[in-house]
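## tool: complex_structure
## caller: assistant
## args:
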Amino acid sequence: MFIRHPDNPLITPATIRPSRPDLEVIGAFNAGATLYRGEVLLLVRVAERPIVRDEDWVQCPYYTPQGDLAIRRVHRDDPAWDLSDPRVIRHRATGELLLTSVSHLRLARSRDGVRFSVSDTPWLTPASPYEAFGVEDPRITRIGDHYYINYTAVSPHGIATALVSTPDFVHIQREGIIFPPDNRDVTLFPEPVNGQYYCYHRPMPGMFKQMSIWLAASPDLRHWGDSRLVLAGRPGQWDAGRVGGGAPPIATARGWLSIYHGADEHDRYCLGAFLTPYDEPGRIIARSAGAVLWPEAPYEVDGFFRNVVFTCGAVVMAGQVRLYYGAADATVALAEAPLDQLLDTLVPC
Amino acid sequence: MFIRHPDNPLITPATIRPSRPDLEVIGAFNAGATLYRGEVLLLVRVAERPIVRDEDWVQCPYYTPQGDLAIRRVHRDDPAWDLSDPRVIRHRATGELLLTSVSHLRLARSRDGVRFSVSDTPWLTPASPYEAFGVEDPRITRIGDHYYINYTAVSPHGIATALVSTPDFVHIQREGIIFPPDNRDVTLFPEPVNGQYYCYHRPMPGMFKQMSIWLAASPDLRHWGDSRLVLAGRPGQWDAGRVGGGAPPIATARGWLSIYHGADEHDRYCLGAFLTPYDEPGRIIARSAGAVLWPEAPYEVDGFFRNVVFTCGAVVMAGQVRLYYGAADATVALAEAPLDQLLDTLVPC
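## result:
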């Protein structure tokens, strides 16, 4: 039921100015989305890597505690390192991991939600030891007159979720780490329910490995507790391998609509949807049987990481869900569906 | 400087009455400790397993969602399961894990802190889907006129930390999960600092695997945020592999004293200590250079899991730190040290 926009992909790495002359942009994807003063605003995850000057060396960028970008170089013939994964390299003896790219967040704005003007400079760059390997996958939630942006903070200390807030997308207040590692795919509810703030989050237990969507509650958006499991993958289905929050919950006449991602055992990422009552965000009352969007278009099937559609944000305009999504960890794309039709397809459970 | 008590180990599995006639106690260890009405109270982790009636079958106990104890049996010749670890078995195809024992918490009390009377019935048994594989490693912290007990909740959903409170060790109030999986070794501060509650916690990032001690803050003990790294292991030393909180912080004239555990790459668990200013629980000002206690006695070197000393609680009486600790994941032991001497050995950093 989601219809891909004919101009897809809307934002590609080639259109993004690198943050430094010695870097190249290899991904512009997984964008948070919101409406702001008559425009659609996106915060795009921009992944960069050092420009390759010598194919014999792998270059691994990271931010120092002083906030400077530094590069570790590893020779391709060095047997101490496992270089089989293009995204991350691993020291065979110590287990140390280094990433081959580093992400920051970039603001893009559009009057029609299709043609975006992307800022030439970063909106948020790594600025703490918890962000040494980058800031990723932002979700934007308007709560009252502030916008809260949570994002994944990646470093040798793990994969954590941090929060910033802004009244105007100019002044940024850092609110600290809200979920210690490993935890990502946090989606904040846009208003308090029963006097508490809520969010979905996705812990990543290392031993039991069950990657499911949990709910947490907070009095103030900074301190979170009362965590409980909400939605798990279904064996044998498209979301069997793992699930995680996608776009922040959307208030509808039938309850809270969430669009989430699921992956199967082959790391093929699709999107699904579920519904909870307005006053019980931990109770699933309906869920899409199949995926609502799956990798099919060439820019979804091929890219930096193949077979991925992954959302960090959607907006509702004139009864249409405009779903912004990352395609193949490379570009920003758009698909649209009538909200009522999307709700109609969910199967009560 | 810690002197082992000559009566060690103080509590052994043989002295514990099983919670059911078809179970046997295989461990009584990792006890939380507090002073209560002139007695030393321990909450002992009691590990039980189904009595072995047929050596050909591995029996894996777990609690159903209805709170009943059930047993999965796996034949030792079944090639689908990896049975090489006596503590946990793993399905080779699905990765499913089952534990071979299940823990509950048992109250023990003593007037002299040495001779303990252990209750014949459990004090806390698994009662939620997050505790299907047991409740482990309790820490007791008196805050105001209530005692807060946090413990590790283990289930297929991961290794989480839950909280209960009690005014009298009779009436128990469940406060929910305070740290989603994987996170354990939580130690609560016994009083608010600068108007906030604090705790140390130990996230377990699965990809980067850095197992360090973090601080978190809370307005109400149920909701936690502002997580930050406090103390990491030191390469090449006894705590190189991982560190985690041990006994809840002890207020001293020089600041907060914490006794923590560290393990090396061979999973040999020792205990160390560190100090923070009273009003800055996230800043280490002194730390033990070597371990303050290491596996040496026969009951520490041999047992269910060899070469482990691990603490969940200490009390201070007449200037002496009485450190209760689990020995080899099997028994409860006691070691004592003068508080001032222990503080003197810490090296400023």
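## assistant note: The longest strand of chain A covers residues 23-36. The domain at 3-348 of chain A is CATH 2.115.10.20 (Tachylectin-2; Chain A). Handing back to user.
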